[in-house]
Amino acid sequence: MYKLRKFYPPGFDPQQYWEDRYAQEHIAGRSSDEFRKQGFWPLMERHLPRDKKVLDAGCGVGGWIVFLKEEGYDIEGIDNAARMVRAMTEYDPDLKVKIAAIDAIPYPNNCFGGVVAVGTLEYVEDKVDEALREVNRVLMPNGIFFLEVPIINGLRRFFYIPLKDLERWLKGKNNRPVFANYFFGRQELRRKLDEAGFTVITEQPHELPDDHSHYGLYVDWKWLRGSQPYRLNIVGLAIKKLANIVSPWIASTGMVIVAKKR
Ligand SMILES: C[S@@+](CC[C@H](N)C(=O)[O-])C[C@H]1O[C@@H](n2cnc3c(N)ncnc32)[C@H](O)[C@@H]1O
């Protein structure tokens, strides 16, 4: 796991920033098409049980909860950011959401048929193993864990991470970097899942579905950014194309894993 740390301006609180930003992206405005066109929706639909309760751990403003509820899933959610949870219950008081952390899930053992954690585990600083054990605890035997996390892809391993380490060495004497998120090694995450009591069923690289966009390249490299969020400029599009010819694992920002509780 690589612990990405960033140098934020003085007084900047990243946790507060993300809470404010996500809470503004009110779920009422988001259409179910946005979720249906995600590259991993077919995989989620194939594996997530519709006849048992499902938990969205780190549900954010609840886009997946609303979408999966529309799709007929019996879904509940937790998030450790109170504002997100409030935004959801204001939108629909019937949504079942709680303020809670993924490493201390307030539910009994073996009570869910599935747990979804899309873009959550990378923010759980120093408690990833606890979080995996907690997810395992609340799942029924053979229950499905569907997760998406950012990975140490080829470009990150050989370019982005060494540059970040150099930046930390140069700037770190006078400033303190703040934890931003983890990048996970593919083999390492599989091992952690195994140790927590899961068997991996399948995995796939994860990126934005749109041809002109790329989450990883856009976020990691400012000089590849186009004029709209997540859209690449012409150099970025060429890099994306070249990388994908070799392998989608070279540039994809994340990976999706479907695992089963043993
Ligand atoms: C990038 S957002 C993803 C939200 C949602 N899963 C989605 O796909 O739209 C990450 C979410 O994880 C939540 N989070 C971070 N650490 C957490 C933790 N330890 N326990 C529960 N939620 C956490 C954040 O508050 C945030 O809402």
Descriptive terms for the model:
binds S-adenosylmethionine; 9 strands; 7-stranded mixed beta sheet; 38% helix; globular; alpha/beta; Rossmann fold
Can you give me a brief rundown of this structure?
Helix content is 38%, strand content 23%. With 262 residues, the protein is of the alpha/beta class.
Could you outline the blueprint of secondary structure elements for this entry?
Elements: E1 2-6, H1 14-24, H2 32-36, H3 41-47, E2 53-57, H4 63-70, E3 74-79, H5 82-91, E4 97-99, E5 112-118, H6 128-138, E6 139-150, H7 154-171, E7 178-183, H8 186-195, E8 198-206, H9 215-220, H10 234-246, E9 254-261
Parallel strand pairs: 2-3, 2-5, 3-4, 5-6
Antiparallel strand pairs: 1-7, 6-9, 8-9
Structure description:
The protein has one domain (2-153, 179-210, 256-261): Rossmann fold (3-Layer(aba) Sandwich), CATH 3.40.50.150. It has 10 helices and 9 strands. It is globular, with a radius of gyration of 18 Å. It has helices at residues 14-24, 32-36, 41-47, 63-70, 82-91, 128-138, 154-171, 186-195, 215-220, 234-246, and strands at 2-6, 53-57, 74-79, 97-99, 112-118, 139-150, 178-183, 198-206, 254-261. The protein binds S-adenosylmethionine. The site of S-adenosylmethionine has 19 residues, from α4 and β3. S-adenosylmethionine binds at residues 22, 58-60, 63-64, 78-81, 84, 101-103, 118-120, 123-124.
